Batch of 2 targets.
Target 1
Amino acid sequence: MPWPEGTQTIAFEDVAGAILVGATLSSPAIPDTSGPMLLDTGAGYLAVDADLSSRLGLVDAAAAGPVVDVTTRPLPRLQLGGLQIDQVTPVLTVDAGIIRRVTGRPVIGLIGQAILRDRVVVLDYAAETMVLLPAGADSSPGPPGIGLALSADAVAVPFRMVADGKILLRVRADAEPGGRQSELSLILDTGATKTVLFSRALDRRLPGWRSWPAVRGLGAPTLTGDASAEMVRVPRIGVGPAGRPVTRSWVDAAVLGGDPHRQLEEAIGEPVDGLLGYSFLKHFRVALDYRRRTLWLDPTQGDVPDRREEYCHPGIQLESVGGTLRVMAVAVGSPAARSGVQTGDELVAVDGIPVAGRDVIEVSRSLEGDPGSRVVLRLRRGSREWSRRVARTPLF
């Protein structure tokens, strides 16, 4: 059975949880500019890298302002696959360099919900495909084509839209396996590579969280700056109706301390406890029906298994900076920390193979491996260069 008329199917690249979609931005000021954009349901509108916004003529080159701002002129044309949108407004300016640092891809901006809200967005993480279904105007329980995209096991989860179109969900979490559940208010965010929880919310709602398996001393780049983080495993997260929720056990989540929640809460006008991101969503085929305010989660399709050795490595986070790979953070108590590796060190080579110009995700994966196996890191700090042979160790 064919898709409904008007359906668009667009391939995306899954870069360690960042969903990148090829896009073309057109303006009389410069020729068409093509590049990957981050699919981000946590963002309200289209957002374009600040420097590119200037070259496209969306803002005055001489204007100086905050990192996130609204352009003075609309974008003449946006092309996503076969979908063309003219005179896009509003458009925000952002520092997309933050996304480029962690993905190693030439990301030019973000695709927020306003671009896709007249469609039903179906994400198949396993197939790395996004299907845009016409929302239709019928009154049936599901939108046109939803039966083709999802199985009978898909669960409908109602949501609220707040502020600039952020999707707010009520999510249940357990402090311990089989223990008392607490309800959290999370924003659905396809731009978050991990589920994110705010420590002050966990202290209030799930005080037992500090006994969860954790990796401390990590970093979490955000559009408003870098935040300190620790990676935890949540015993269980459940979404959906009480009688038929979809659940996942031991979900990876980044816990952010300090006050990164404040700007978000000011924007939406109510408390929020975190973001429901890729580490949960990747186990489902996901469908977003904006018109009906319904999220569909299909547990029998689209699953991306957890990587067995994701957390078995020397304990460093890498970022791409100007063609070099640098240490963004060092896990507390890790082999790398015990060997004297520090934040800001440049990684020169892994097992004798130079890393300059290589993909940051590829190099990060090369550090993973069997427990007890060893890897030789060549590092540079200022004028000093040295090597360390360090063990791969399970961090959880």
Target 2
Amino acid sequence: MALFGKKKIEEGEKKTEEKTSDVKVEKKEKKAEKKPEKKVGEIKPGTITKDILIEPWITEKSHAAMALNKYEFRVSKDSDKSDIKMAVEELYNVRVTDVNIVNIPPKKRNYGRFVGKKSGYKKAIVTLKEGDKIELFKGV
């Protein structure tokens, strides 16, 4: 009687081994399918141009650069040059010739006796085609 029980256990072990090997193959196939490729000049699905451009960056230096057709914007951390270009062209109806990106790192700040951190951000400097202009100061 013990022999019959042993055969059943061995057959059961073989079946579970076959199932686990199939599962491993399926997981590898799913990982390969999850990576969607992004085409150049295409905004990521689910993002809106207002999510890419957070705000215009207005300082004395950026105001002087506006005379050279260069405008500065604070942008989202996960955006890249092509996303920023598409967003500016769509939102302001202008033609962008060049985009430069600067990552500003977080900085330490003292708050009384405590040390805190000022969060970093990403800034984009957008150069427009000659003759195009963005009206940042409407009604002023």
